[in-house]
Amino acid sequence: MSLRLRIQLLVTLLMGLMLAGLAWREIDGTRRSVREEVEAANRVAVQVLQVVEQRPFDEALLMLKGLGRVRANRLSLFDGREVLVYTSPESPYKPGRYAPAWFANLVTPDTQPRQIALPEGHLEVQADPSRAVLDGWDDFRELLTYAAAGLLLLSALTALLLRHSLRPLGRIEAGLRSLQEGHFDTRLPPLPGREAALISQAFNDMAQAVQDNLHARDEAREAQADLAQSRELNQVILARVEAERGRIARELHDELGQQLTAVRTLSQVLLQDPAFARDKAEVAQLLMRTTGEMYDSLHRMLPRLRPLALDRLALADALHDLLVDWRQLQPGIVFELHLDPLPEGLSDALATTLYRITQEAVTNAIKHAEATRVAVSLVRHPAALSLTIADDGKGLPAHWQAPGHYGLVGIQERVAALGGHCHFAPGLSVHHGLSLKVELPWSPHDAAVHPDHIHSP
């Protein structure tokens, strides 16, 4: 059922109730007026006719015939044997017409006949409200006629007004269906009427919001796809950089390392030769000292290019050797290492990332944070490896994300490239220090657990 039809029915129902109230009020007024008229006429008739009480029967009959009809009363004369001798004639007012029985029953009062005793019979006076009831019926019918005509006219005007007022709903419905079909650029024109104008404005605001959200979602999806591609590209670049670093490290180790060793050995041979001149011995010693320094520099550079320990050791052993080297280089700093039993056969990318993050974070703690204590912990979870590097140094720099600061940002990029995440927390000291926690996903597959659980105080 449409809204217009429901409103039309509601208005018709209200008008019908109003009409019923008017009709009942008219019937009640007719009932009171009929009662007053009948009772008054009956009393007057009885008082007038009491003059025939002491008259002979024949004289009373002649008097009644000469009197004719008394208003709103019916006169009946009975002789001593209860035989009806005379009845007053019908009223000449609206002859032959009577109100419907249901209406007469509603408005006719309950009256009892009055009897006047005569010497040879009696006279019965019965109230007859039929003419008054008929007048009430005519008035009631006229009222109903005008009310029905007014009801029809008002219904027609209401229908026209509703049709005009609810016409904007059709445009609103069409707009909603257009949105449902995916046309989110649909807009409604200004609609007549305050409520329709507000609905139109709300519809346009909603459509604009939906369109903006869809655009934002598309842009976010594109940005997410670009980010995924960027991370994939970054992972490929990191892998290639690590591979190139490994190649350079191996070449430096294999070629330059052997050459430096050969030069150093030659210098020792020359120094041990008795025939070698003294001035030439000083040159050989300088050459031997220089090659030794170059050899030490080479061995310090190689781990930064490529953790060669990962080529021959597991990640746990490589991290252990890394902290041993730091203890030797920084004897005034306390280094702690805790490693859970790690799975064998970790991917090269995962092992290299964990090693590089540890190397970068510990270097930052030593050089920039001025830490006196550094703790490294690698914990194994069912589907992730959790690496934590905590120190008691100066904490996270205020502008660590500013351009030119690539250490921590690089760690975040490495972690994101492997689908992990990292966050920062307070370090080993209550008011100082920094704790970097990294979680990287891993799949166990068929990897076995390494039997060694390394813990270095």
Q: Which word captures the global form?
A: rod-shaped
The share of residues in helices is: 55-70%
Tell me the fraction of residues in β-strands, as a range.
Answer: 5-15%
Read across the widest sheet, the strand sequence of neighbours is: 8-9-7-6-5-10
* Derived structural class: alpha+beta
Which parts are unreliable, with pLDDT below 50 for 5 consecutive residues or more? 446-457
> How many alpha or pi helices?
11
Question: CA-to-CA gap between the ends?
Answer: 83 Å
Radius of gyration: 59 Å
Explain the overall architecture:
There is one protein chain. By secondary structure, this protein is of the alpha+beta class. It has three domains: 3-165, no CATH class; 191-306; 313-456, Histidine kinase-like ATPase, C-terminal domain (Heat Shock Protein 90). 60% of the residues lie in helices and 13% in strands. The chain contains eleven helices and ten strands. It has helices at residues 3-49, 57-67, 101-107, 130-165, 167-180, 194-272, 278-305, 309-312, 315-329, 348-367, 407-417; strands at residues 73-79, 84-87, 114-118, 121-127, 334-339, 373-380, 384-391, 421-426, 434-441, 455-456. A six-stranded mixed beta sheet has the order 8-9-7-6-5-10, covered by helices on one side. A four-stranded antiparallel beta sheet has the order 2-1-4-3. A hairpin with a 3-residue loop joins strand 6 and strand 7. Helix 5 (167-180) packs parallel to helix 6 and helix 9 packs parallel to helix 10 (348-367). It starts with a helix and ends with a strand. The model is unreliable at 446-457 (pLDDT under 50).
